[in-house]
Amino acid sequence: MTMRIVSGPAGRGLIPRSLLAVICFGLVLLLVFYQTGWLRPLTYQLARAAAQADLLRRVRSWQTLTGEHFVVKFLPQDRDVAPLVLQAAEAAYAPVTKDLAYTPPGRTTVVIYPTRKELNASFGWSAQESAMGVYWGGAIRVLSPKAWVEGKDPAEIGRVFLTMGPMAHEFTHLVLDYKTCGNYPRWFSEGLAQYEELRHGGVLWDDPAADFTGELYSLADLERFSDLPNQSLAYRQALSLVQYLAASRGEAGLKKIIAALGEGAGFPEALAATGITSPAALAAGWQAWLASAGK
Fold it and tell me: Where does 101-182 have alpha helices with state H?
């Protein structure tokens, strides 16, 4: 077999030093702009849009149900529950967007997966994961109500999904993510999502592993939220911290924090907008609040 090697004009194989200097200078500028926050929101939005486009490509042949603010994608076996999922999503829209003072652009995509295995597989997760819903990459993915709601009566399935389903929780994640371009601690997003879920749906998941009588995680620990061994405790603490912020600073205080994050402030600066001088002050105030309330 004959190999043909194609080369460029002689003397053009190396980058001139002057051009190399310009390239290096440009890379340094990009790094500086990213570190100072100028490019970070843009790159985050591009990455989120790419993830959303990939999901839409994978479910492009699925059936579609379109509402005022949401587009539900589903397989034929979930045709009967797709309207219930859309109803729950639309019910969450007004209260969550009002509380977070932000309206996401366009219609939000919600994908229904018939089984937990298929939901987990869409993320490459193991079969042991037990999420009923996940927000990621600009879209919401949910487990079909038929996979976890007991009973066959459509009205009962709809009632349970509306009150105990994940739509308010996951839509809160989405709205916060769009408003801040991902500029938030994971624990704050999880706490806020549970807070909205409890506030508008009355749902509080109880787990003995989330007992506050033992050793609690520090705020520094919560920064490693996904890696913490006791996830039930981490979620419960995240909710409790947001409840403390709402109790001590009011709903207006929560909005100030979210607004500051949306303007690019770090979390300590966002706290300062409500008069909380540091994360350490937040932790101390929260601990005192727990003690006074006997929680």
Answer: 116-121, 154-164, 167-180
Nearest to 260 by CA among 248, 247, 250, 273: 273
Cα-based distances in Å from 101 to 70, 206, 259: 18, 29, 8
In contact, 119 and 113? CB cutoff 8 Å: yes
Show contacts of 47-52: CB within 8 Å, 24+ apart. 48/137, 48/138, 48/177, 48/182, 49/138, 50/137, 51/136, 51/137, 51/138, 51/139, 52/109, 52/137, 52/138, 52/139
Residue of 162, 164, 157, 143 whose CA lies nearest to 90: 162
The span from the CA of 251 to the CA of 274, in Å, is 11
Q: Do 153 and 249 have their domain in common? A: no
- Whole-number Å distance between alpha carbons of 175 and 105: 10
Q: Which tokens sit at 273?
A: 């907008």
| Enclosing H/E stretch for 82 | helix 82-100
Among 130, 161, 182, give the residue marking a domain's end.
182
The predicted pLDDT at position 9 comes to 33
Domain of 114, CATH number, reads 3.30.2010.30
Beta-ladder partners of 33:
none
Co-location of 158 and 171 in the same domain: yes
Who contacts 224 (Cβ-Cβ below 8 Å, separation ≥6)?
A: none
Residue 65: beta bridge partners? 72
Name 282's Cβ contacts closer than 8 Å, sequence gap at least 6.
219, 241, 245, 271, 276
**Is residue 8 assigned to a domain?**
no
Do residues 115 and 144 touch, judged by C-beta distance below 8 A?
Answer: yes
Cα separation, 259 vs 257, whole angstroms = 5
> Residue 10's pLDDT is what?
34
Residues of the chain scoring pLDDT < 70: 1-38, 125-129, 202, 208, 294-295
